[in-house]
Automatic annotation (TrEMBL):
Protein name stated in the entry: Ribosomal protein S18 acetylase RimI
GO molecular function: N-acetyltransferase activity
One Pfam family linked to the record: Acetyltransf_1
Domain of life: Bacteria
Keyword Cell membrane: no
GO cellular component entries: ribosome
Ribosomal protein keyword on record: yes
Entry keywords, A to Z: Acyltransferase, Ribonucleoprotein, Ribosomal protein, Transferase
Location of the N-acetyltransferase domain: 4-164
Length: 171
């Protein structure tokens, strides 16, 4: 594998993305087909994918916009309809186990951050497993605390990254 190509996912590739999600998460924690369809239909500019030169899907990243200040269990299943919320909740960053520790997750995360900054969102929020806290801290996320969620039987921790939005005063 020489180069990883990052791009927005296409609808006909959602089944591959779901298969990757299901390889990376337990059945109780993995997104559903309906969840992926919803994220793709409502937030297509936030559904990133990473591909090898030979066309293999290596990683995905996606989520939803929200007014919520934390990513609760309600965002993991049936999504609230807050299409223009000021925050973005990352719901998936998944990399094929055979291709981890090569910077793919960091590149996908950077694409999500860029998309959120371009939309002038207030913050990015997420829940992660304990072993991923330092990964997100390296990307300038702040540890918020242990989440009340136990989605999929996992111990989740909340992280947050406030985005740099410039406020202009009018005279």
């Amino acid at each position: 594998m020489s180069e990883v190509k990052l791009r927005l996912i296409q609808q006909h590739e959602l089944s591959q993305a779901l298969e990757l999600e299901q390889r990376c998460y337990s059945p109780e924690a993995a997104a559903t087909e309906a969840g992926f369809q919803y994220r793709f239909q409502e937030y297509p500019s936030y559904f990133w994918s990473a591909w090898s030169d030979d066309g293999r899907l290596l990683g995905i990243a996606n989520g939803i916009r929200t007014e919520q200040e934390s990513c609760g269990d309600e965002m993991k299943g049936s999504h609230q309809e807050e299409y223009a919320g000021d925050n973005f909740c990352i719901l998936t960053i998944a990399v094929d186990p055979a291709f981890r520790r090569r910077g793919i997750a960091a590149k996908l995360l950077d694409k999500l951050i860029q998309a959120c900054e371009n939309e002038r969102l207030k913050a990015i929020i997420l829940m992660c497993e304990p072993h991923l806290i330092s990964f997100y801290e390296q990307a300038k996320f702040t540890y918020v605390g242990k989440a009340s969620s136990s989605h999929g039987g996992i111990e989740w921790h909340e992280m947050r990254r406030n985005l740099h939005t410039m406020e202009h005063s009018s005279e």
